[in-house]
Write a structure and sequence with these properties.
The protein is α/β, with parallel strands linked by helices. The protein has 2 domains: 2-151 and 292-343, Quinone Oxidoreductase, Chain A, domain 1; 156-288, Rossmann fold (3-Layer(aba) Sandwich), CATH 3.40.50.720. Helices cover 25% and strands 26% of the residues. Strands 3, 4, 5, 8, 9, 16 and 17 form a 7-stranded mixed sheet that branches. Helix 5 (152-162) packs across helix 6. The longest helix has 11 residues, at 152-162. The protein starts with a strand and ends with a strand.
Length: 345
């Protein structure tokens, strides 16, 4: 089978690999029907994910059909259409039992697929702990509707959940990339009084204004003044930082009102400074960390009900044989790209 493979820093190659096999009674083999490219895949390519293993098949955003299952798998059977979770988690350890699945203590716990074990930019993928890592796609939900459930939509749902958003709140979201839009969709489920999105890219600003006209939009240079003018208490009640820019962490806490919640969704390339003297008296609550992707069944239910729709994010489609060209489009933000769907050849 063809598999996009991490060769060395700066190099991915589409090579032939053997079809994966069951290695554990809790494994499943999934035939990939649709996959996507994530910014984290670019981080691997550029060598900024030290735990990524050369030789692995990359990719962790995918849906497919169960091909075979291990003897201890009970949640899915061959023939089931499924989403694949970005995180591998055993379901048994302390962290899994408390819903902190990103911190699963299994050797393959956390982000393994497409990083430390073979991922999904290929034709078949082995999914460890399939009872936790796979969710059945409900009837009537398409592959494209379900494509982002296991990663960026799970991230947005988790971020909105831990941010304690109320109907009286003004919510600020920094960043309108794919994860930012998924976060926006999940924030809107909470019905806050007002939502503001801060973004600098003109194409992404236009996307938000076209698809979510009820949302206010501003650019970084005007963000702090804009938020103050559209809030009642000197800043946003909740800030979700999804951009990960060089100065967006500072912007996040500066735009927050006293006693606000600041949820950091972004992954930074450099350490961020927590200037406690300057923020003294604001009494902010910071929530940070990787997504706990254990809400996928609920997300799929909301998609089935028509309450979540990420299909507008798919702006480009490529066959697997052209995935290198797809990476060029995605990495260099060509042709207004937001997300790309990859189909098997």
């Amino acid at each position: 089978m063809k598999a996009l493979t991490y060769i060395r820093q700066g190099e991915f190659a589409l090579i032939e690999k053997p079809k994966p096999e069951i290695q554990s009674p809790r494994d499943a083999i999934v035939r990939v029907t649709l996959s996507s490219i994530c910014t984290s895949d670019l981080h691997i390519k550029h060598g900024s994910v030290p735990r990524a293993v050369p030789g692995i098949t990359v990719g962790h955003e995918m849906v497919g059909v169960v091909e075979s299952v291990g003897s201890q798998v009970t949640a899915v059977v061959p023939g089931d259409r499924v989403t694949v979770n970005v995180e591998t988690f055993c379901g048994d350890c302390f962290f899994c039992r408390h819903g902190y699945v990103n911190n699963c203590t299994d050797p393959n716990g956390g982000w393994a697929l497409g990083c430390r074990i073979d991922g999904g930019q290929t034709e078949f993928v082995r999914v460890p702990y399939a009872d936790q890592g796979l969710n059945k796609i409900p009837q009537g939900v398409t592959d494209e509707q379900a494509l982002f459930v296991g990663d960026i939509l799970a991230t947005g749902f988790w971020a909105a959940r831990i941010s304690e958003i109320s109907p009286e709140d003004t919510v600020l979201i920094l960043g309108a990339g794919p994860t930012g839009i998924c976060t926006l969709l999940c924030v809107l489920l909470k019905n806050p009084r007002k939502v503001i999105v801060c973004e600098k890219d003109p194409a992404r600003i236009a996307f938000v204004r076209e698809h979510y006209p009820q949302v206010l939009v501003c650019e970084p240079g005007e963000c702090e003044a804009f938020v103050r003018s559209h809030s009642d208490h000197g800043g946003a009640d909740v800030v979700l930082e999804v951009a990960g820019g060089s100065d967006t962490f500072t912007l996040a806490w500066q735009c927050a009102r006293p006693n606000a919640i600041v949820t950091v969704v972004a992954l930074y390339d450099e350490p961020q400074t927590l200037p406690l003297p300057q923020m003294y008296g604001k009494n902010l609550t910071f929530k940070t960390g990787g997504v706990d992707g254990c809400d996928c069944a609920e997300i799929l239910r909301l998609i089935q009900l028509g309450k979540l729709d990420t299909t507008p994010l798919i702006t480009h489609r490529f066959p697997l044989k052209d995935i290198q060209r797809a990476y060029d489009v995605f990495e260099n933000r060509k042709d207004g790209v937001i997300k790309i769907a990859i189909t098997p050849d």
